[in-house]
Amino acid sequence: MHYRLDRVFSWIIISISVVIIAGLVFFITYSLDYSTNKPVYEYFYNLFAGDTVTFLYSLTAAAQCLAATLGILIALVLVIVQLTANRYTPKVVDIFITHWVNIFIISIFIISIVYTLWVAHSITTSFVPRYSSLIAMSLVTICYSLILPYFLYLFNILKPINIINQIRDEAIMAIRRVHRDPSYDQKAKTLIINRMEQIADISLSSVQVMDSEITHHSIWALQSIINHYLMEKEAFHKSWYQVDEKHLLGLPRHIIEEMVKRESWVEFRVFRQFRVIFSTAAGKMFDVNSAIAQAFRAFGIRAIEKKDIAVLELVIKYFNSLIRSSISMNDGRSAIDTLYQYRLLGERIIETHPDIAKKVVKYLNYYALIFVESGIRHTFETVAYDLRKINERAFKKQVAERREYLEDFLRLQYKLDYNKNSKALRGLWRTYCALASFFLIMKDEEAARTIYNELQRVPLEVLLELKVEILSVTEAHYWEINDRIINYDYIPPEQKERLNTFFDWFIKDIDSKELKQEG
Predict the structure, then answer these.
(1) So what's the pLDDT on residue 447?
(2) Can you tell me the distance from the alpha carbon of 132 to that of 403, in angstroms, rounded to the nearest whole number?
(3) By percentage, how much of the chain surpasses pLDDT 90?
(4) Are 304 and 349 within 8 A, CB to CB?
């Protein structure tokens, strides 16, 4: 608000400055002419002492100049508006037509032209409307003084970021109005849908031209709308959730019915637009896809806070969809960024909805196998690392289902063929060993023993190689700039001590077996 007031104030200063400068130049030159020619009339009266022909010509010329200027102004503005609309969204045309500044400028030009023509029409050989002429010339001056600040305003309002802000504000105002007045919900449904689609269109256009700033701002605007909506929706009337095909175009009837039943049709609509943006940016604008993943995590956290299970489950489904899109586009970078936000959300869900977190663990295990089959081994190692962190979080929070999470994670190794996926499997075993050392730090020997029992199938020489590989990692951060920066195999010094204890179990087991055989 203060920014807008500052803008208006600066535009007023510019207009006044134009008038003052033009007035000073006029009076300086007028004074020189007056002192040189010595007119009959006094200094100021001489300004209005002209005859009928002079006033008629001046006013007619002023009206013609204003009309010509207005025509040129509208033509230039329409070209600018059309170019902006073609690049971003047709909404720009609506902004131009409905904004009060545009209406004011056109109105004052038209009023000045009409008024000046009527004053000129009232001039006769015996009557000169001097005061009316003064007002007419003042209006002409005002009109021309507004041109420069108007162009500054126009370039400002047609900036994509400002267009996005205005569209966002309209959507949020509609949400707040529905909260106060349930009878407005039918109009609000159409308006909110249109506004969100317009922002999504701007985002897609920005992705096409690789404009990261505008794309990020569009994502922020959509996220802001949904955040406001999630804060207000619990107070909405039930009629708000009754929608049909026109609100969810292209969807089967049973999906629409499901969205109505779960009261999540608005979120579904926006999430679907996010997925389109994500797919469009895949492989070329990783930061955009990372921002979308962060937005989904924020939606999930807000759903947890509002105890909106339907939206939380919808967020999880769309996280899965984003991962699937990354796999389809062979975009490992977007997948890794999405997995990171997915894991952070999963860690939060563990604390409040461990049953839902169990599903997240199941999905991550599934996509880990898909990454291996797709040949994106590094992403598989990322999933393994994220599953390790989720298990660590579950054990720190003493979640009742923590044993089930661990068992699901450990079963992942049996779904890989060592001959075909040896590198991936070795990375998974390293992750298991790091997790076992964590359990020993947490004094949960039972969990560590569970991992120990599952690794009995691994040859001892391979285990010793894994031990050397893990202990050789001394830096938490990777030595190159990678997708996560961190080194997945790094564990703190205190865990390394417990890792030695863990591997000693295997050696002692071999020794005991040999003693039994000798005995």
Answers:
(1) 93
(2) 90
(3) 30
(4) yes
Cα 274 to Cα 291: distance, rounded to the nearest angstrom: 10
Percent composition of the chain: helix, strand, coil (DSSP 3-state, to 5): 80, 0, 20
Say how far apart CA 478 and CA 248 lie, in whole Å: 45
Question: Residue 477: beta bridge partners?
Answer: 486
Structural domain range at position 490: 397-519
Structure tokens at 364: 């991550």
C-alpha span between 354 and 408 (Å, rounded): 14
Residue 497 lies in a domain: yes
CA distance to 380, 422, 427, 430, 483, per residue, from 418 (Å): 15, 4, 11, 14, 26
Q: Quick: pLDDT tens for 474-496.
A: 886 665 555 567 778 888 888 88
240 shares its domain with 279: yes
Domain assignment of residue 315, yes or no: no
Last residue of a domain, one of 289, 308, 327: 308
Residue 236 DSSP SS3? coil
The DSSP call for residue 474 is: -
Other beta carbons less than 10 A from residue 221's beta carbon:
27
Nearest alpha carbon to residue 193 among 171, 208, 220: 171
**For the whole prediction, is pTM greater than 0.85?**
no
pLDDT attached to residue 220: 94
Q: How far is CA 513 from CA 236, 454, 464, 502, 519, in A?
A: 69, 18, 18, 18, 10
Query: What pLDDT, on a 0 to 100 scale, did the predictor assign at position 515?
Result: 46
Residue whose C-alpha is closest to residue 177's, from 105, 235, 101: 235
Q: Tell me, what's the pLDDT at 46? A: 57
Query: How many domains does the chain divide into?
Result: 3
Q: Do residues 101 and 200 share a domain?
A: no
Cα-only R_g, the chain: 35
Q: Tell me how far apart the alpha carbons of residues 259 and 334 are, in angstroms, rounded to a whole number.
A: 28
pLDDT tens across 436-470, in order?
999 999 999 999 999 999 998 888 888 889 889 99
Cα–Cα distances in Å, from 180 out to 174, 238, 428?
10, 14, 54
Pick from 22-36, 143-157, 290-304, 383-397: least confident: 22-36
